[in-house]
Amino acid sequence: MACLPSDYHDAARLTELLAGSRSEAEDQEDDATPPTTKALDVLDLVLDLVDLGWLLKSDGAYKLHQVVQTVVLDQSPPSREVLAPVISVLTQKLNYDQFKDNPVDFFPWLPFGEALQRVIDHVGLPVDPKLAKFWDKLGRIYVQQGKYVRARNLWEKAVAFAEAEWGPEHARTAMYWNNFAYVLDELGAYTEAKGYYTKAIRYAEQHLGLDHKNTAGAYSNLAAVLQALGEYAEARTYLEKAIASDEKNFGTEHPKTAIRYSNLAVVLQDLGELAEARTYLEKALASDEKNFGTATIYNNMASLLEAMGEYTEALTWAEKAMMGKVKLPEGHPSRETGEQLLVRLRSKLEE
């Protein structure tokens, strides 16, 4: 009960969590009670707790009394055995991969996950594989919400556990490295992100192969960090590796390949190799317009043509890019960048 959040939630969700936790705990006992009966038993328990004053009720929703929660945590903190089934249930409920096309399904469970994490911190629960997995799922939700510091704190602990428990040759260790590197990248900790992406790449090359699509993704992620660090030549090398893999796996006209072409073009522009950058952007555009068309690649072409002094053609691409950005709110960084480019190009053409 101490794992319940401090705000009100409907009875159905509360019952689902408690019944699911009870089922997890009873699995080892071969319990044959039907799920519907278990849910009704839990609902009876909820109502009993309301009568005792432990749970507060408002318009069909319930929450744990804060005084009760404090007393329970201080005087009778839940053990690993008590928390384990709750961790299992919430790991499933917070599975981003399962609900990524409809995030509304897992967001209502986020307060429960956060409440559970507070309890875990309070009791100092020893880390095990299930807890590390729970941290990974909760971290993914935080990333979707832009809460990168919270995600970093969770993945940092998951990485430390994975390295100690499984070592560098385990797939889950590599996955945690990659996730941790991503959030470090988002926080601007590029040097640290570079180190973890490099570890993830080493694993991918050895266990998946150079041409595997996941290895290509790791190459691309590291290249973005290297570009942010100003290490353009090395970024180019990794993007070329990613492109070689993508062309084999997806072909030259796949949207994923087009994005890699565009990213490499930006790096080549940073290196001053404008003609080659244009070649890759033209390849990206050939694929991009056939598949869906993105403002980002249009904008990249406009920036490149501006650097080459071809302002009229650059303006054409900049205007196409802005057509894809008009739905963005005013003040959005991408929209502002596009507007500034338009103003700059029009000014140069008027000179």
Alpha plus pi helix count:
17
- The 3D shape can be described as elongated
Major beta sheet, specifics? 3 strands, antiparallel
Elements, N to C (H/E): EHHEEHHHHHHHHHHHHHHH
Helix vs. strand class = mainly alpha
Strand order of the largest sheet: 1-3-2
End-to-end gap: 71 Å
The fraction of residues in strands falls at: under 5%
> How much helix is in the residues?
over 70%
Mean pLDDT: 86
* Structural Rg: 26 Å
The total beta strand count reads 3
- Unreliable spans are 28-40
Please explain how this structure is put together.
The protein has 351 residues and is an all-alpha fold. The chain has a domain at 1-126. It has helices spanning 11-26, 35-52, 66-75, 80-93, 96-99, 110-123, 129-144, 148-165, 171-186, 190-207, 213-228, 232-249, 255-270, 274-291, 295-307, 311-323, 333-350; strands spanning 9-10, 55-58, 61-64. The chain is elongated and about 80 Å long. The N and C termini lie far apart (71 Å). Residues 28-40 have low confidence and may be disordered.
Show the helix and strand layout.
Elements: E1 9-10, H1 11-26, H2 35-52, E2 55-58, E3 61-64, H3 66-75, H4 80-93, H5 96-99, H6 110-123, H7 129-144, H8 148-165, H9 171-186, H10 190-207, H11 213-228, H12 232-249, H13 255-270, H14 274-291, H15 295-307, H16 311-323, H17 333-350
Antiparallel strand pairs: 1-3, 2-3
